[in-house]
Amino acid sequence: MPSTTPDPPSSALAIRFATAADVPAILHFIRSLAHYEKLEHEVVADEAGLTTTLFGPRPGAEVLFAELDGAPVGFALFFTSYSTFLGRPGLYLEDLFVEPTARRRGVGLALMSALAQIAVDRNYGRFEWAVLDWNTPALEFYRSLGALPQSEWTVQRVVGAPLAALAQRWPGSVAPDRPPGG
């Protein structure tokens, strides 16, 4: 059985924030991850939508790229969450993917470490993510980093028609923002 301890990062490895020019590569990584997870049928993202939602006036997430010798080989898409118990924001990792040819070269470790640095630098209270229960290599990798499973929680999701139906269950509307003290 191969070791699950990540190799140290290569000296040819660089981590950087993605820009709008990287949208085609971001979509490639999203599709590659979906293929690995056997969820290709769920990907409806396109370049226009990613450009708007990641680099428009109200970005919904941030993206880190891992590059080996200047070529993108991995990415991490993350956003700010919030813990009411901690009273602090957190970092939520939505997607992490490393090209198969770049695995065992410290790329995943470098991305996870960079994300942890961002969380610490921003004074976030936690760094968390979800992983498919059948993804043993990922689970072992995360354990090697010190991650602990939150087995008492289950993920709940509402999408498509059930989301639209839920939105109609209350006939009111959300009031616009009010200035402090207003």
Question: What can you see in these coordinates?
Answer:
This protein has a single domain (13-155), classed as Gcn5-related N-acetyltransferase (GNAT) (Aminopeptidase). The mean pLDDT is 92. The protein is 30% helix and 21% strand. It has helices at residues 23-36, 47-55, 107-121, 136-144, 160-167; strands at 13-17, 62-68, 71-83, 88-98, 127-129. The protein has 182 residues and is an alpha+beta fold. The longest helix is centred in the middle third of the chain and has 15 residues, at 107-121.
CATH C-level = Alpha Beta
Q: What order do the strands of the largest sheet run in, or round the barrel if closed?
A: 1-2-3-4-5
CATH topology tier name: Aminopeptidase
Q: Residue ranges: pLDDT <50 for 5 or more in a row?
A: none
Structural class comes to: alpha+beta
Summarize the structure.
The chain has 182 residues and is an alpha+beta fold. The protein has 5 helices and 5 strands. It is 30% helix and 21% strand.
Label this structure with key terms:
182 residues; alpha+beta; 30% helix; globular
Protein topology:
Blueprint: E1 13-17, H1 23-36, H2 47-55, E2 62-68, E3 71-83, E4 88-98, H3 107-121, E5 127-129, H4 136-144, H5 160-167
Parallel strand pairs: 4-5
Antiparallel strand pairs: 1-2, 2-3, 3-4
